[in-house]
Each structure stands twice: as structure tokens, then as C-alpha cells.
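Closing statement on the NAP sub-project.
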Amino acid sequence: MSVASSVTLIAPFDEGVPGPEHFQITQSTVPPPEGEGSIQVKLTGLAADPFLRGRFKTTNVPVYAPGATISGFVVGKVVTSNNNANWKEGDIFGSMMEFTTVQNFTAAQLEKILIWKLTDFIAESELDLGLSILGMPGATAYGGVVDVLRPKEGETIWISAAAGSVGTMTGLLAKHLYNCKTIGSCGGPEKCELIKTKFGYDHAIDYKAGGSKEELKAALKAIAPKGIDMYYENVGGAHFEAAFESLAPRGRIAVCGGISMYNDKDMKPVSINPMTMVYTSQRIEGFISFTYLTAQREAFLKTMHGLLREGKLVPQDTVFEGIDSFGEAMRTIFTSKNIGKVVVHV
Ligand code: NAP
């Protein structure tokens, strides 16, 4: 028998910043896996992700029952394999599964879950990369830039939440793959300096010093007088409206997320006039990371791994030690305390 710890949600809540008061850690025992092809996995890290906030609401489908174990993105290794053809002991992986540190899967269950092998890409000591560059945020950065925005050499791109997990990678992708003129926005002068020195940004806008639509538009105009060619949307609200009204002809917006609204019960819609898109042939497109973790996984992993090994992508994590710190890790995201990926070692 192995002892497992799980992160459970005390009860769904519609408003406010998540924190330690919303989660409980429970213990259970896990028997050895049974049956040909079954495996046992041990998790080494959990991701604190903005999208989880939506899952904690009473409006989520299906809504979590009070005390339910939550699911999200994890990394880990296979500790037992009963002759599974695809998974051997010692294999390392990224996955979306329950936040339970030890779990068994039958061969049939493994067919149905989102899990990708990292053994051929990284060493066990680098497993956190499976939560960032070679994980869900990496797939998001890759998909949004390469597949959705499709930059042309030298175009101008604005990326919001630029010091977060996705934003630190999108800046580098836009710079190294397309030599874009890169503008990042984030909170505070230290983060603004950091994204310029480390994450491929030519210009930084401190939205905390001026985050209204008009202030953001003025900041963009000073950097890109003819307008921006692309906007990678992570924040929502005034950020989106400013981007829309600053978009050049044939401009594109990739809608990745809207973190400024996640702690609100009702997410307020933005106000735009879509008729301005007609003669300018502009485009707004939403997308989801799963596309690049499933159908386009091979291209995503190959590209991101290659850039990582060339030193063109820079790992950046904010790390918490111990499963008990999950609530604190979640709070960090919504209080601007993190830089890069928020990882919880378990
Ligand atoms: P992250 O690393 O957790 O960082 C989030 C950052 O957002 C924070 O560090 C904070 O930085 C900023 N932020 C928080 N509240 C804000 C507010 N009210 N206004 C402006 N900025 C705020 O986030 P991430 O994983 O990179 O995710 C970024 C966005 O991408 C989120 O919207 C997320 O939901 C979305 N996403 C979408 C997909 C998809 O499949 N479409 C996948 C992954 C992520 P500052 O210091 O700058 O405030």
C-alpha cells in the first residue's frame, strides 16, 4: 500500500481570490495496481493555473461537490508497470488528472486520459518543464503565436500578462521565431524591467501605473504609432478594448484568456464595434491549449524542446514546496506575486 495526498475543494465559491481557506488536503491509501497493462504513477508537481478558478464556481459544468478532489495539470513518473506496452517504470510524463499524489490506471483508463511522455525530452531532474515549456502553458504559447496569430517577420505584437507563465514564453517565441517588435504589459516596474531583459520584449507597459483603455491606447500609440499587428489576449476588459482600438489593418487578436475577470461572479462583456473589422480585414480568434496537447502535440513538443535546448526559451517558475501550499500558490496568481509558472512540488 502507498499513502497518497489529495487536494480537495472545501466548497465551490463564485467570487473572490482563491487561497488556503478554500482547500483541504486529505490522505488515502492506494493498493498496488492490478491487471496486465496497469500502472501506478507518483506525481512530483502540480500546476496552479488561472483556468482552475472557473472550475471552482457553482456555474462550472459539472460543479465540484464540496470536498471533491480537484483535477488539473501535473507532472510525475511511473513507479510500477504491469507490462504496459507504452509505459515502463521510470517513464516521466505530463498529464491532466486528479491532484492525488499516487494513482493507479488500467490500460483502458490510460487510453482515455490526457497524458504525454516526456522521457525522450528531459531528465527527471527537469520534470517541472512538463508544467511549463513542455506542458499546458507551453502548448498555449506555441498555439497562440504559431497557429493562431501566424506573425510575419518584423510585425508588432502586444502580449498582456507578459510576466506570467504564458507571457514569458510568447514574448520569446515572437522574438526568436518571427523577429517581431514585442510589447509586453504587466504589473509594476520590476516585472517591466525583467520582461525586457529576459523574456524577449522590446517594450514594456506597466498597466498598474495606467490600466484604463485610454491609458493603454496612449502607451501603445507611443510605441507603435501605426497600430499593432497582433494582440495576444490574456487579461480582458480594458486591455482587450485598447487592443481592438489600436489594431492595424489585417490585425489579429488571439483570445487566450481574461484573468482580470476570473474572480467575478459575472464576467462583464467588453464593448467593441465589429464593423471596424470589415474593410480592415481584421480577425479575432479564440483557441484552447488542448489542440496542441493532442492533435498537434508532436509539432508543439518538437518546436518548444528545440528552442529550449538552443537557449531561446528560458524556464521561469515560482515554486512552492509541499502539497499544503496549493492554496497559497493559487492566491499568488491573482495577486501579481508570481513570475512565470506557479509550480507546487508534492
Ligand atoms: P499566470 O502565470 O498564472 O500569471 C497570471 C498573471 O496575470 C499574474 O502573474 C498577474 O501578473 C496577471 N494578472 C492577475 N490578475 C490580473 C488583473 N486583474 N489584471 C491584469 N493582470 C492580472 O498565468 P498564465 O498561466 O500565463 O495564464 C495567462 C492567461 O492565459 C490567463 O488568462 C489564462 O486563463 C490563459 N490561459 C489560456 C489557455 C487556453 O487554453 N486558452 C491556457 C493557459 C492559460 P501582473 O503582475 O502582470 O499583474
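The chain is about 25% helix and 25% strand. With this model delivered, the sub-project is considered complete and its resources will be redirected to Aim 3.
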